[in-house]
């Protein structure tokens, strides 16, 4: 059975942040949240300094602590048969236990109505002019996100990366994969020998974040951002 | 379990070709339009330069387009007082009222025989610019069309021109190169062809060794094999020392440069060489260069100046030259947009000459030309007055003794953008009474920006055509809201990369939700109509010649004019009957659908037999520069030595004609201003125009060293300790000309003795996100241009941006 995974080639990563920005666009992610994020680190003393950069996102863990702790029935945070960790915004009660349980800090809680910036009088003037429905907040709102998730997540619940499940079902790639300018991301079925993800994991040594937590993440990293680091 | 159930159909929308002018990469784009809204952008796969690849900052264009702070309609100033703290009291007016005011002012100045006191200013542009920038000033009769070019790069063009006769940016054959030196260039973060280089850089790193020469740990340095953190402004020392190493070790490229007759290397440190013993092939003056400059420029000498260890200089120069000719130096603005950067520009460029990688596989390349048709000439619509006045001295003082601006070998032919403020202030050569400016913001983007505020105060009547109210707009009398170049107007630009030149076409693709117009063509048509209505019909009669090449129809309104002008000049691209080269199309609609034209692939060694220099050779001893300097000296009845002195150079005699080390010229004494200030460019800059997009601030930390949501200056922790400064402290940076406030960030990627800060923030009038308090004019962060001294690399006219200003730092 298909088992989705992502491989990020840190050698190919140029640390440009396009993944994080385009994720916002595809998923209508509000200001301050980063479903796609990054960790950077500077080590050493001038002039012997190295800088490393690791793009991050929800790891869609096999043993997802966020799912384990979700108290609702059915669970708002759940695993699909293909290994995605998804969030059902209708079931979510906003208890934030998943946010606390996630070792990677990639679950975000909406304490207020999202996209406040686009709701004041001045912004509303733009919104009203570009759409008769008055519902395009932000003005570059992507309607496709709403196919499988709340298009914009309402207040008092959490939200997170879905590996762009609304694109996967269309046979498309997650948007961060498609838009990475440096071709550093691969997405596919890790069980399928013909899949590039499967082949990459065979060809290269890989690592995952905080493996000691036993979460069995499905985001793998190969090679180094800089060999000298 | 699948809980999602039935899902709505995927909305594909339309992908409409366009291009991006957020920086000078000028990448092809497609915009995704869904129900009349733009929701995404991506690279246009039809481009052989960037293909589908898109850099991160292009995506910020969505927040620019829909920015609630965009100007919604034309406005007129009602408060005659002008100043930073003065509210212009803008009131909305119609386009017709705006044109009425502008036409009246133009006709009044023509009446008073003062039409040469009208200036047109251009910042960023599409190539529809010819109309506003060339044709309009010509017919109105003013010499004063002033571009932004020399606050962009001219010193970068100086070195290549005075060695190999090429006044332009270049292409780099990175995929075939085996050693790449990025000298003050940061191709995965800023200028040029960032999208293309982001795409291929991992492959480049697999094949080539990459060394980065840059005072701070740049984005490209974080991934490089070698980092040479040169002391600011000492790049010239490093360049001539590397040339010294290459020659003493016998590693120059023999095919390109030639050799000693008997094959014995006589380049021995400290010893002159007999010119007769060496025979050059495609170059001129190697031995002169050695004798006049290089023989004493040892790595030890360079280590003392540049701070780069002797061993590293030797290693990098040697490994670089061993890969010759598949080894290239990519020079950026940092090392050369300095007061004495002109000769550094030549010295760095000349390394490519030594290894024979100029115009060669794995080396530096030129771009292909683009087939274009000229617009109908304005000449017969220029009256006697206009014919005379377009030859008047320009307000930027180009050609003055201390501003040779030797573009392409011609004294006084380059622009000295930032000097225009002084020209206006000192009324030298005369006063300026009217400015029509578009897509620029010199009161923010030019060093010593406050001079511009004073200069603008002095001008009676300013028309500013922009998408956003900005620092310069605050001094405007009429504000004309502009279209966004990617989504709302016609336009096109060409750029080179990946051994091709591409040209992309932008077109109006969504309904304009504010009452905005394109300044390059539409506004000019409206102005021409208004002038004709008032009795001056020359501009309109001229514009009527811009006919649709398919139907021969004259334009009847501003929209048709913009489209016909685009179609007309691009006819050799889309019309199969006028085909010249590169991609072929079946007609206008076919080209529109594809959206981008590509040149044929670049052919190596096109120029080896004729570089277009004085000698036709690649010049290590620049006869071309000698000729240009002698012409300029003759214009002023002086000697070349006197010209160089006026231009703040120390070189005398023949050294003036060769790449050489001229010690840095820096403003501010070390005792009072202990730090060198290093300006660099934020990865998300759309040239200072993205600061009102909140993503710009939210993702500021994708720049190595920088922090999200904060404008920070980078200091080495050792320096900071000494001054008791900690990360997140608010600090004031003071230079001899101004001060700014921002936050401190301690970072090991910065050398001791340096304060580095990204350009882009510190707007006090760009919008609610860009400012701390927009209504009260309080900036968010600090604008580097308020502390940078207005000075110049005078031989090229380039503004100095880098390593020429000392600062001190205080806790605020």
From TrEMBL, chain A:
Which segments of the protein form a coiled coil according to its record? none
Listed Gene3D superfamilies: 3.30.70.20
Question: What residue stretches are annotated with the 4Fe-4S ferredoxin-type domain?
Answer: 4-33, 49-80, 83-112
Family annotation (InterPro entries): 4Fe4S_Fe-S-bd (IPR017896), 4Fe4S_Fe_S_CS (IPR017900), ET_IronSulfur_Cluster-Binding (IPR050954)
CDD domains xref list: PsrB
Q: Which GO terms describe its molecular function?
A: 4 iron, 4 sulfur cluster binding; metal ion binding
Its keywords, alphabetically, are:
4Fe-4S, Iron, Iron-sulfur, Metal-binding
Q: What is this protein called?
A: 4Fe-4S ferredoxin iron-sulfur binding domain protein
Organism of origin is Natranaerobius thermophilus (strain ATCC BAA-1301 / DSM 18059 / JW/NM-WN-LF)
């Amino acid at each position: 059975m298909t088992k989705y995974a992502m491989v990020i080639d840190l050698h190919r990563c140029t640390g440009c942040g396009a993944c994080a920005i385009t994720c916002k666009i595809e998923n209508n992610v509000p200001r301050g949240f980063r479903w796609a994020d990054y960790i950077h680190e500077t080590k050493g003393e001038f002039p012997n300094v190295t800088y490393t950069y690791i793009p991050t996102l929800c790891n869609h863990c096999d043993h997802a602590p966020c799912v384990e702790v979700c108290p609702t029935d059915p669970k708002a945070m759940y695993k699909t048969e293909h290994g995605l960790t998804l969030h059902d915004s209708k079931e979510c009660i906003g208890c934030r236990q998943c946010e606390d349980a996630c070792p990677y800090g990639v679950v975000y809680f909406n304490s207020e109505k999202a996209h406040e910036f686009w709701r004041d009088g001045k912004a509303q003037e733009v919104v009203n002019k570009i759409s008769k429905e008055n519902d395009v907040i932000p003005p570059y709102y992507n309607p496709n996100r709403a196919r499988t998730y709340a298009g914009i997540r309402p207040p008092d619940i959490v939200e997170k990366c879905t590996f762009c499940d609304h694109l996967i079902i269309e046979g498309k790639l997650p948007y961060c994969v498609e838009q990475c300018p440096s071709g550093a991301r691969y997405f596919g079925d890790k069980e399928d020998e013909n899949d590039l993800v499967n082949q990459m994991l065979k060809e290269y040594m890989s690592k995952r974040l905080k493996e000691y937590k036993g979460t069995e993440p499905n985001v793998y990293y190969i090679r180094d951002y800089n060999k000298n680091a | 379990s699948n809980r999602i159930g039935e899902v709505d159909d995927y909305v594909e929308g339309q992908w409409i070709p366009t291009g991006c002018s957020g920086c000078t990469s000028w990448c092809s784009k497609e915009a995704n339009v869904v129900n009349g809204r733009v929701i995404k952008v991506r690279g246009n796969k039809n481009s052989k330069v960037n293909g589908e690849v898109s850099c991160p900052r292009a995506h910020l264009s969505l927040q620019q387009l829909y920015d609630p702070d965009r100007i919604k309609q034309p406005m007129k100033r009602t408060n005659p007082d002008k100043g930073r703290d003065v509210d212009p009291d803008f009131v909305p007016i119609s386009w017709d009222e705006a044109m009425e005011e502008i036409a009246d002012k133009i006709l009044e100045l023509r009446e008073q025989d003062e039409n040469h006191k009208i200036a047109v200013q251009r910042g960023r542009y599409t190539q529809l610019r010819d109309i506003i920038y060339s044709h309009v000033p010509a017919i109105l009769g003013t010499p004063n069309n002033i571009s932004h070019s020399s606050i962009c790069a001219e010193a970068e063009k100086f070195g290549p021109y005075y060695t190999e006769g090429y006044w332009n940016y270049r292409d780099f054959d990175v995929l075939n190169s085996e050693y790449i030196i990025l000298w003050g260039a940061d191709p995965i973060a800023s200028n040029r062809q960032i999208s293309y280089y982001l795409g291929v850089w991992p492959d480049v790193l697999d094949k080539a060794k990459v060394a980065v020469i840059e005072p701070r740990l740049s984005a490209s340095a974080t991934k490089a094999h070698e980092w040479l953190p040169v002391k600011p402004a000492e790049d010239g020392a490093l360049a001539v020392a590397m040339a010294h190493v290459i020659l003493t070790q016998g590693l120059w490229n023999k095919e390109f440069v030639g050799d000693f007759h008997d094959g014995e290397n006589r380049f021995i440190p400290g010893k002159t060489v007999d010119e007769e013993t060496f025979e050059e092939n495609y170059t001129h003056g190697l031995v002169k260069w050695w004798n006049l400059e290089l023989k004493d420029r040892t790595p030890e000498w360079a280590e003392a100046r540049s701070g780069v260890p002797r061993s590293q200089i030797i290693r990098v120069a040697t490994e670089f030259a061993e890969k010759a000719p598949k080894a290239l130096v990519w020079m950026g603005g940092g090392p050369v947009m300095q007061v004495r950067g002109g000769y550094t520009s030549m010295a760095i460029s000349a390394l490519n000459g030594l290894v024979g990688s100029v115009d060669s596989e794995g080396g530096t390349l030129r771009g292909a030309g683009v087939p274009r048709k000229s617009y109908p000439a304005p000449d017969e619509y220029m009256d006697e007055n206009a014919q005379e006045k377009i030859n008047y001295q320009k307000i930027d003082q180009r050609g003055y003794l201390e501003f040779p601006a030797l573009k392409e070998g011609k004294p006084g032919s380059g622009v000295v953008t930032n000097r225009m403020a002084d020209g206006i202030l000192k009324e030298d050569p005369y006063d300026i009474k009217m400015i029509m400016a578009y897509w620029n913001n010199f009161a923010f983007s030019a060093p010593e920006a406050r001079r511009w505020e004073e200069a603008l105060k002095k001008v009676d009547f300013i028309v500013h055509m922009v998408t956003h109210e900005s620092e310069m707009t605050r001094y405007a009398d009429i504000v004309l809201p502009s279209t966004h170049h990617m989504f709302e107007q016609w336009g096109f630009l060409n750029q080179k990369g990946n051994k091709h030149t591409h040209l992309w076409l932008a077109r109006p693709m969504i309904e304009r939700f504010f009452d905005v117009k394109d300044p390059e063509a539409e506004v000019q048509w409206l102005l021409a109509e208004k002038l004709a209505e008032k009795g001056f019909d020359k501009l309109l009669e001229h514009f009527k010649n811009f006919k649709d090449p398919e139907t021969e129809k004259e334009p009847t309104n501003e929209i048709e004019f913009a489209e016909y002008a685009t179609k007309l000049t691009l006819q050799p691209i889309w019309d199969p009957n006028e085909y010249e080269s590169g991609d072929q199309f079946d007609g206008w609609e076919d080209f529109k659908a594809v959206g981008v034209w590509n040149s044929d692939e670049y052919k190596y060694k096109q120029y080896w037999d004729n570089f277009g220099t004085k000698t036709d050779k690649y010049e290590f001893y620049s006869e071309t520069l000698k000729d240009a300097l002698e012409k300029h000296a003759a214009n002023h009845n002086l000697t070349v030595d006197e010209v160089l002195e006026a231009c703040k150079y120390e070189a005398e005699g023949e050294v003036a004609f060769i790449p050489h080390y001229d010690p840095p010229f820096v403003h501010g004494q070390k005792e009072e201003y202990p730090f060198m200030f290093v300006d660099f460019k934020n990865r998300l800059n759309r040239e200072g125009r993205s600061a009102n997009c909140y993503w710009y601030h939210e993702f500021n930390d994708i720049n190595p060293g920088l922090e999200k949501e904060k404008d920070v200056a980078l200091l080495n922790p050792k320096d900071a300790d000494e001054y008791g400064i900690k990360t997140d402290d608010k600090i004031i940076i003071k230079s001899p000309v101004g001060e700014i406030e921002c936050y401190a960030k301690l970072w090991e990627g910065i050398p001791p003795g340096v304060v580095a800060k990204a350009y882009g923030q510190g707007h006090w009038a760009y919008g609610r996100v860009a400012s701390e308090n927009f209504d009260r004019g309080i900036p968010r962060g600090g604008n580097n241009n308020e502390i940078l001294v207005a000075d110049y690399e005078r031989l090229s006219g380039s503004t100095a941006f880098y390593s020429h200003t000392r600062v001190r730092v205080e806790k605020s």
